[in-house]
Design brief:
The protein has 259 residues and is of the alpha/beta class. It has eight helices and twelve strands. The strands form two sheets. It has a ten-stranded mixed sheet with strand order 1-2-12-11-8-7-5-6-4-3, with helices on both faces.
């Protein structure tokens, strides 16, 4: 199978053929069993997060930040692949979402009322997850990665900016303007860290080109194109396994893990 690459605005655009190759086999998906934990953000709001241990003490970890209207279940196809690759996973249900809805009813009502302020406060939920990984799992920031989808990518870029030692990030369907977040401003603090952007050809012009130009000084940007033109964010997962495979390979390289 041939691999096609093109350099655009300092980024490497990877075709589906590259994403489909791997030193590891595609694994059958089995529903992972996560440990439910409740965390309290700095503003006092409680959220439910789900911890997926890979069985190796000190293994690197990722925090998964879901789309608006989703929860940690949206990540299940990816969690399976990451666990088998020796990567631990922390998947929060952001305030007002999923299992966090009953823990934060006021924030849920803000979502119902389309109060944009609640989305800015979700960054506190993400930071609580990073703090827990460092405190309870004793992981240094360089052993932690961030993966976000749509709204979660904006949260992820903000999180990377306030935590300059986090290892790398994966962005599924990033947006330039998302629920009060201005992504081009956020990426100014990204620095020279590995970044994988996953999008589709039809979505490419929406944000990816501007983001790669803004991060042109960052040598480790990769853009992977999903051949399915219609799906976005976590909806890309659980189909051909192409997206999961690509993310897994990217993280293994970033963490210097061997198959």
């Amino acid at each position: 199978m041939r691999t096609y690459r093109a350099h655009i605005a300092g980024a490497v655009v990877l075709g589906a053929s590259l994403a489909a190759t791997s030193a590891l086999p595609v694994l059958a998906q089995q529903p992972p069993q996560g440990q439910r934990i409740e965390l309290t953000a700095k503003d006092g709001v409680r959220t439910a997060v789900f911890w997926y241990d890979c069985g190796t003490k000190g293994a690197p970890a990722v925090i998964l930040l879901h789309d608006n209207g989703r929860d940690h279940f949206a990540w299940v196809p990816l969690v399976v692949q990451l666990q088998h690759a020796g990567i631990q996973v922390l998947a929060p249900d952001l305030r007002g979402h999923g299992a966090s809805q009953k823990l934060a009813p006021e924030e849920y009502q803000q979502l119902v009322n389309r109060d944009v302020a609640v989305y800015r406060e979700m960054l506190l939920d993400a930071q609580a997850g990073i703090d827990w990984l460092q405190r309870e799992q004793r992981l240094p920031p360089a052993r932690i990665a961030v993966i976000g989808a749509e709204l979660g990518t904006s949260l992820g870029f903000a999180l990377m900016g306030t935590n300059p030692k986090l290892r790398c990030m994966v962005a599924l369907s990033p947006q330039l303007h998302s629920y009060g977040y201005q992504t081009l401003e956020l990426v100014k603090s990204f620095g020279k860290r590995p970044l994988l952007i996953f999008t589709t050809k039809s979505q490419y012009s929406e944000a990816t080109d501007d983001l790669t130009k803004a991060l042109q000084g960052t040598a480790a940007i990769q853009v992977a194109l999903n051949p399915d033109r219609e799906t976005r964010g976590t909806a890309m997962l659980g189909q051909s396994m192409l997206v999961e495979h690509s993310i897994r390979n990217f993280l293994m390289a970033a963490f210097d893990l061997r198959p």
